[in-house]
Amino acid sequence: MSEHVRFELEAGVGLVTLDRPEALNALNDGILAGLEEAFLALGREPSVRAVILTGAGKAFVAGADIKAMAGLSPLEARAFAQRGQRIFNLIEDHPHPVIAAVNGFALGGGLELAMACDIRIASEAAKAGQPEVNLGVIPGFGGTQRLARIVGRSRAKYLLFTGEVISAQRGLELGIFNEVTAPDLLLPRCRELAALIARKAPLAVSHCKHAVNEGTDLPLGDGLSIEAELFAQTFATADQKEGMQAFIEKRPAQFIGR
Ligand code: CAA
């Protein structure tokens, strides 16, 4: 595990903390490797139900490491972008919900990382943006694609062309953030949300994520086919029997994840 990425697992909830505060958690080789390792490990762990991703110090992530990128050739830059994209896809495709606890700056690769997560909760102290045009480059870790899918093409272009850094409140209005909390309530709120999700039928939650991720970029009919298939698969689970029986018996369901 990278010295700059910590992870813990408690009561089915993984907490991944990027811990390079002296560089505002800028994404260098070590952090990217640690991030990949943490999510691969959490993906293999059967007790995981949700994951929270956050940053230590005053930043979530202030972007890809500019000092490490400055001397890259075009060939190396392409490989760097592809590596970051592969790791962020791993997070997006993680079988369980991933909640970004955006504690501070989420700029460039930092906002791109948050956007690869399923749900984004921001502290009032958070600031977000894609400031790459100030550096003579464009986002390389998915920003042009995920931002446009989240806020729409025109609002995404506005943010990409201007490099504007927006407040947490503005991010909430644009739909980048699901909620904004006081700074000291950020992690408690994310833990509460993760615990709420962890009490639901795990396979059903996982299939919801899969259906949205896979289906919404396809024509509606293809997305609906994916939904019908995953809906059918839930009827082969013990949790479907338990969930419906518990409703009929007017008692809380006890899900086992099968
Ligand atoms: N890369 C490398 N180092 C970074 C960094 C980054 N993205 N962001 C901050 N740091 C470093 C600073 O260089 C500084 O280190 P030193 O003390 O050694 O000089 C340290 O972190 C603290 O930063 P500041 O002194 O700048 O802190 P501040 O509070 O005055 O400013 C900030 C904070 C506004 C976030 C400012 O640091 C900043 O503008 N950072 C760069 C943001 C940015 O442009 N991100 C996009 C990167 S490109 C990208 O991400 C491309 C992609 O899509 C793959």
Describe this structure in words.
With 258 residues, this protein is an alpha/beta fold. Helix content is 49%, strand content 16%. It is built from eleven helices and ten strands. The strands form two sheets. Strands 1-2-3-5-7-10 form a six-stranded mixed β-sheet, with helices on both faces. Strands 4-6-8-9 form a four-stranded mixed β-sheet. α1 runs parallel beside α3, α4 crosses α5 and α9 runs antiparallel to α10. The two termini are 30 Å apart. The model has no long low-confidence stretch (mean pLDDT 97). The structure holds acetoacetyl-coenzyme A.
Blueprint of the fold:
Layout: E1 5-10, E2 13-18, H1 29-44, E3 50-55, E4 59-61, H2 66-69, H3 74-92, E5 98-102, E6 105-107, H4 109-116, E7 119-123, E8 127-129, H5 143-151, H6 153-162, E9 166-167, H7 168-174, E10 179-181, H8 186-198, H9 202-215, H10 220-234, H11 238-248
Parallel strand pairs: 2-3, 3-5, 4-6, 5-7, 6-8, 7-10
Antiparallel strand pairs: 1-2, 8-9
Helix pairs in contact: 1-3, 4-5, 5-6, 9-10
List SSEs in N-to-C order: EEHEEHHEEHEEHHEHEHHHH
Based on the structure, what is the oligomeric state of the protein chains?
single chain
Hey, roughly how much beta strand do the residues contain? 15-25%
Q: Number of helical segments?
A: 11
Please give the alpha-carbon distance between the first and last residues.
Answer: 30 Å
Shape call: globular
**Helix content range of the residues, please?**
40-55%
Main sheet characteristics: 6 strands, mixed
Average the pLDDT over all residues and give the rounded result.
Answer: 97
